[in-house]
Amino acid sequence: MSEANLKRVLIADDHPLYRDALATLLGRAGDLSVGVAVGSLDAAVAAGQRERCDIALIDLGMPGMDGVSGIRAFREALPDLPVAIVSGTTDAAAIRSALAAGAIGYLPKTLEPATVVAALRLMLAGGTYLPPELLAATVLPADGATEAGTAGNALTPREQEVLDHIIHGASNKEIARALGVAEVTVKLHMRRILQKLGVRNRAGAVAVALARGLATA
């Protein structure tokens, strides 16, 4: 694959050994490359504004991050650059907060190398990644929500179709095109799905669906 066709990853982590290990891993993947590797939030923002990158992998605990506020600052500076978190913690509250702040994935540093590459490919394709063992613990609860699948709260066949597309990373426009409906209709289905699953956003819907085996396609 030519250099121009490689997906470029921005790595931001204050541990040089981990940065180097990620860079080596991506270099072996064949379809990925390191756009830039830095060690702080400020450097990550500057690099993202300067270099063409397709996704950012950011350490939750590096200098300048200050937890979730760093994710929000990065998203405000680079709203078109998807961001995923890499972290040494698997605390459920931290993961929920990261997703709510706009992260499209959460990768513990204990992941196997092949899983990191697979997760990156999934997110670059528009999906959301959470380790399977953390899905059930990281659902974003909604006030007054009930358990999905209980009486009167099961997904309709059309809502299930929409949910399957969401799990595969499709946008509202793409779902509307695939189902032959208006985009506003998809948004209405999406609102109902979030209510029934008891979550606040797409990432939460994907987490619940995978944790409960709700995917059918």
What does this structure look like?
47% of the residues lie in helices and 12% in strands. With 217 residues, the chain is of the alpha/beta class. It has 2 domains: 134 residues, Rossmann fold, CATH 3.40.50.2300; 79 residues, Arc Repressor Mutant, subunit A. Strands 2-1-3-4-5 form a 5-stranded parallel sheet, with helices on both faces. β4, α4 and β5 form a beta-alpha-beta unit. α7 packs across α9 and α8 crosses α9. The longest helix has 15 residues. The protein is globular, with a radius of gyration of 18 Å. The relative contact order is 0.11.
Q: Which labels suit this protein?
A:
2 domains, alpha/beta, 217 residues, Arc Repressor Mutant, subunit A, Rossmann fold, globular, 10 helices, single chain
Give a brief rundown of this model.
A 5-stranded parallel β-sheet has the order 2-1-3-4-5, sandwiched between helices. With 217 residues, the chain is α/β, with parallel strands linked by helices. It has helices at residues 16-27, 41-50, 68-77, 92-100, 113-124, 132-135, 157-167, 172-179, 183-197, 202-211, and strands at residues 7-12, 32-38, 55-59, 83-87, 106-108.
Task: Produce the secondary structure layout.
Blueprint: E1 7-12, H1 16-27, E2 32-38, H2 41-50, E3 55-59, H3 68-77, E4 83-87, H4 92-100, E5 106-108, H5 113-124, H6 132-135, H7 157-167, H8 172-179, H9 183-197, H10 202-211
Parallel strand pairs: 1-2, 1-3, 3-4, 4-5
Helix pairs in contact: 7-9, 8-9
